[in-house]
């Protein structure tokens, strides 16, 4: 807009600014589903270089992703990566075992990037070995060992693909952002993996956002986990509340306004904006925002319908644990995820547990026993439900956390029964389209300290997800925003079916 658009003394905000400021209302929510498909707007976003057209770069194996994130850092050695040596050598220091002292390994300095000075860091170097707090059993035809805390998930083990040699670089909870963006907190922030999926692929349902968030993130410091930054706010995750009556922020039509009245209002706004578009034909963002109102109108019906569990059978709700107090919250969030991908949402980021709840500095056994019992049944229910509906052939499920827990006993504040943060090696698992099933890839050392071999930095997980969706992350590069090689990662070829 030019200065002549407003008489002297009038508000100087342009129509574009006004509409952008509605980002917490219908317009911003609608943009999350629409603008990525608007080639004109994409051309305005990028002045040079290839512009994603919403089509996969090669034949995809999957259509959608359910990304399950457990905030706080679950203990890999008490969930999916058993280390009997911890129990055998409990109470000894690392240098008293027959194994190489992992703190002295070259991998420690190569991968670990601490914020505090090395001379005062104690977080990942606790030397006294703490025994495993739970037993493990082999499960499924594959005979994969899984913790006794996951009895329901153990029945699904033949559909799971474990990656036991993940690593990251931040040993504090900024690692929660790092596993979603690929960047340490000291670096320039990058868009989240969900935002890259949103940016690169077209919509499967124009009535719903392409990137939705259920149950999180927990606070404002974790906004990078769902944010899109320089890709534009239209590619950020859209948080949904599990209330069919009011699922979207500012997304419910006022009770005093009828559907017909609202449609007429949007039509009037559209005509007024169209007049401005004639006067300012170069304002491509304005054109897109005109279209956004219609999508916002459609979302008012589509989103509540997706969150309404009434059509679900009693057997299905029991499968997710909705009939039990302990599992109800996680079950509702995961059932919502299934309903969303079933309706064409590309990327659903789910937080089944409260923010930071897996952070077991003390009382690890008590904490993990409780949390696993809350999540185990609903996660297994999701997998079984997806499989029964044939969706496991077109959906990728990712189950992850920000880092593992130390093999050594945490000694801060007189600790006696917990583990600290551990970025040097941890486990995630995946399931679904294009992945090997009943498979374990990679390993940590005998004490569960370091991811062995090259291991997989968190962006390898991103690259794998994009690859399964038929997208080459390097072809999404934005001119003027060249990313580092580590930002791209590489698909974990060994786990692909």
Give your account of this protein's structure.
Strands 1, 4, 5, 6, 7, 8, 11, 12 and 13 form a nine-stranded mixed beta sheet that branches. The chain has a two-stranded antiparallel ribbon with strand order 2-3. It is built from 15 helices and 13 strands. It is globular and about 80 Å long. The model is unreliable at 1-12, 15-36 and 38-49 (pLDDT under 50). Helix content is 32%, strand content 11%. The protein has a single domain (50-242, 312-495), classed as Alkaline Phosphatase, subunit A. The longest helix is centred in the C-terminal third of the chain and has 25 residues, at 364-388. A hairpin with a 4-residue loop joins β2 (136-139) and β3. α2 crosses α10, α9 (259-279) runs antiparallel to α10 (284-306) and α12 runs parallel beside α13 (364-388). The protein has 497 residues and is of the alpha/beta class.
* Fraction of residues in helix: 25-40%
Gyration radius over CA: 24 Å
CATH class: Alpha Beta
Q: Would you report the number of β strands?
A: 13
Structural class: alpha/beta
What is the 3D form?
globular
Mean pLDDT: 85
Number of domains: 1
Q: Please report the number of helical segments.
A: 15
> Poorly predicted ranges (pLDDT <50, ≥5 residues)?
1-12, 15-36, 38-49
What is the second-level CATH architecture?
Answer: 3-Layer(aba) Sandwich
